[in-house]
Amino acid sequence: MQIELVTIGTELLLGFTVDTNGAFIGQTLAGIGVRVVRRTAVGDRPDLIRAAVAEALTRTGAVLTTGGLGPTRDDMSKKVVADLFGWPLRFEQPLWDELAERWRRMGRELPAANRCQAEVPEGAMVLPNRWGTAPGLWLEGPAGLVIMLPGVPREMRKLMEHEVLPRLRARSGDRVTRSAVVRTTSIPESTLGARVGPVEDEFTPLSLAYLPSVQGVDLRLTAWDLAPEEADRLLAAAGSRLRAVVGDHAYGGGEEDLAAIVLAALRSRGWKLAVAESCTGGLLGARITAIPGSSDQFVGGAICYDDALKTALVGVGPELIARHGAVSVEVAEAMASGAAARFGAEVAVAVTGIAGPGGGSEDKPVGTVCFGWVAGTLRESARVVFPGSRQEIRDRAAQLALHRLWLMTR
After folding, report:
1. If DSSP codes are grouped into helix, strand and coil, which group holds residue 251?
2. Residues 161 and 17 in one domain
3. Is the pLDDT confidence value at 225 over 80?
């Protein structure tokens, strides 16, 4: 089954709201064998909404819309689509009573402006919204199928799960489109392509996509229009092959966070972790503490932005800084060793660098970052020059710090 997605809202076009709904809908529908073949975003204008839905129905006969079902003047989707089907709106008293009761339980009176949310196109099926005030709608007739959902992400997701997917699954057959992701880091996309390219033909009939970001390159394998068992088997085999080819640069799958993988490795050894950060300014610690249960392994650390704090907090000798500079592998090594000793951890990582946009030199250009790692009896260090903006350099530094930590502790 093929379907088109029409997202409605001027705020999407202006860039004030990021459309996370489209990604969720595409992934969710693919899992039951329904392929989103086109996505269109339009503003809150009746002519634009009508044209987008009508054109989509002409192409595929099935459309899912999000947005434009609220109680304000810019919420006009329902009236436009009802007119397209030639169905008048009718006021549903039971729906209004239900909304009023929900507001009463919250200790509030339902505004009269919400009355339009109890109006339903004649012939449409109401998709009850127990998580908000705008019910979803299912319109199906000679014009085709239009599924209308609110734009609020939480409400949309709940309606998809409880009302839309069960109905679409019944008509989508026994074929699915599924994806699996192999996450890689610390390897450029071009180098990764050179490694993977010679074996890509082995993945047929799967497709392979490269998805680069500042943290690495995700390799997404997709099985199209296959039986579920066959799709899972092919994806598992291809994922194993990719990990073997990529080697130590492949660290996880799906949406796994490298920080969580590092913490799991430390947990298996019973080791504690400390950090000493300069240019990342706590970003590394934030990545780690974002993982639930991180307190079992992460003891804390120091943000040693000023050179005096590198000495006071983690014991870096002033003469070492004077001799090599604050951005040097020697200082990074001393910061890591000092953090491990100061905070009583078996494992420590230190980061010091020049994130820019100023402060660089010919010897140490902007993007120069030095690292120090301690893991039990192991000691390692590195000097890397990262490209990108200040934030991108900091993000890349935190990711590399975690990656090398994982290789030393897994």
Report:
1. strand
2. yes
3. yes
Per-residue pLDDT tens over the stretch 188-217: 999 999 999 999 999 999 999 999 999 999
Q: Are residues 130 and 26 in the same domain?
A: yes
Instruction: Report whether 215 contacts 394 (CB < 8 A).
Output: no
Cα 279 from Cα 111, distance rounded (Å): 52
Q: Exposed (0-12), middle (13-18) or buried (19+): which is 191, by Cβ within 10 Å? A: exposed
Triad 86, 87, 88: Cα angle to 5° = 120
The rounded distance, in Å, linking the Cα atoms of 162 and 33 is: 17
pLDDT at res. 112: 82
Q: Quick one: 160 and 20 in the same domain?
A: yes
Note the helical H segments in 247-306: 258-269, 283-289
The enclosing domain of 73 has a CATH number of 3.40.980.10
Q: Are residues 387 and 264 in the same domain?
A: yes
Beta strands at 144-149 and 62-66: parallel, antiparallel or unpaired? parallel
For residues 7 and 152, state if they share a domain.
yes
Domain that includes residue 276, residue range: 258-409
pLDDT in tens, 131-164: 888 899 999 999 999 999 999 999 999 999 999 9
pLDDT for 176 beyond 90: no
CATH assignment at residue 203: 3.30.70.2860
For residue 236, CA distances in Å to 240, 255, 345, 355, 366 come to 6, 16, 37, 39, 41
Q: Which two tokens stand for residue 64?
A: 């899912």
| Confidence (pTM) | 0.78
pLDDT at position 116, please? 85
pLDDT exceeds cutoff 80 at 104: yes
Element (H, E) at 394: helix 390-409
Say if CB 289 and CB 257 are below 8 A apart: no
Residue 364 has pLDDT above 90, yes or no: yes
- CB of 132 within 8 A of CB of 75? no
Same domain, 72 and 15: yes
Domain count of the fold of the chain:
3
- Does the pLDDT value for residue 398 go beyond 80? yes
